[in-house]
């Protein structure tokens, strides 16, 4: 008689599916998997919030859209596949999107965008933040 515990064969699938419950649906993570998320860098400089988006090979007049709503800046772009090449391609084609939350004090009415050498730069003016004192909140007892 062996002192080792009996080995029972269990399928990993029920445990794996339980573990994956709660993760986003495949449709929601597709831009991350397919590489269709626009890569950006941002910074605050000279009273402006600057967002630079990497968008090579697009026409900014026809293929790029920048919108702002409720403090959310959204960049959308479309790169169509050229039919000229008969070889292999590693370029990514299709629709690309990226949304960035604007910082507090951003002036949504005075946004400027420029495109140069495949980089879209968006400048959003930021109002100077006023230093405010903390407000004391009185607590009343329900008793």
What is this structure's SSE topology?
Blueprint: H1 12-20, H2 26-34, E1 40-45, E2 48-54, E3 64-69, E4 72-79, E5 94-101, E6 112-116, E7 119-125
Antiparallel strand pairs: 1-2, 2-7, 3-4, 4-5, 6-7
Question: What structural category arises from helix and sheet content?
Answer: mainly beta
How many angstroms does the end-to-end distance come to?
69 Å
| Shape field | elongated
If you compute it from the alpha carbons, what radius of gyration comes out, rounded to the nearest whole angstrom?
25 Å
Question: What report would you give on this structure?
Answer:
The chain is mainly beta. It has a domain at 46-128: Immunoglobulin-like, CATH 2.60.40. It is built from 2 helices and 7 strands; from the N terminus they run H-H-E-E-E-E-E-E-E. Strands 1-2-7-6 form a 4-stranded antiparallel beta sheet, with no helix packed on it. The protein has a 3-stranded antiparallel beta sheet with strand order 3-4-5, with no helix packed on it. A hairpin with a 2-residue loop joins strand 6 (112-116) and strand 7. The longest helix has 9 residues, at 12-20.
Summarize the model shown:
The chain is mainly beta and 143 residues long.
Comma- or semicolon-separated keywords:
single chain, 2 helices, 13% helix, 143 residues, 33% strand, mainly beta
